[in-house]
Amino acid sequence: MDQSYQTSLITGQDVLRDSYIPDKIFAREGQINEILQHLSPLQKRRRPLNLWLHGPPGTGKTTTALYVLKELKEKANINGILVNCWEKNSFYDILDDIILQLRILRAEEHRTSLKLEKLRKHLSGSSFVVVLDEIDQLKTSERATVLYNLGRSVAA
Q1: Fold type of domain 24-153
Q2: Nearest in space to 115 (alpha carbons), one of 130, 100, 125, 127
Q3: How far apart are CA 92 and CA 82, in angstroms?
Q4: In Å, how far are 11, 133, 138 from 78, measured between CA atoms?
Q5: Rounded to whole angstroms, how far apart are CA atoms 48 and 9?
Q6: Would you list the domain boundaries of the chain?
Q7: Predicted TM-score (pTM) of this structure
Q8: What is the pLDDT of residues 81-107, one digit of tens each?
């Protein structure tokens, strides 16, 4: 049997999961370094610029974002989460997902203002990254609401 076929087989099921983050991403080192450079103010508890990762489907934007979140956690102890805006397509759903992932409020609370206040208190004094994956799928008005409210609520 040809040796190249043996080394190209996928032997672990984890690599096929959406949540899989490779140890190394090839051909994206420049972009990863640029993203980390733009997020470097977080290490001094300052607010970085918002970033917009764009490109054709399947080019690795989500994987790159997850990899950057992993690097920030491991190397700078900066936490972050990813929200899939294709699945969570309103400000309320996105905020709910953030609250749920952070486990900072019981699910039965429905008031957006209280959720924003709890989120603000939870993140107070810490650096945190929220990746809004597929945010371009939201309606323009909903996207503006998400960016405005999250930007005001979790600003450093």
Answers
A1: Rossmann fold (3.40.50)
A2: 100
A3: 16
A4: 32, 19, 27
A5: 41
A6: 24-153
A7: 0.85
A8: 999 999 999 999 999 999 999 998 766
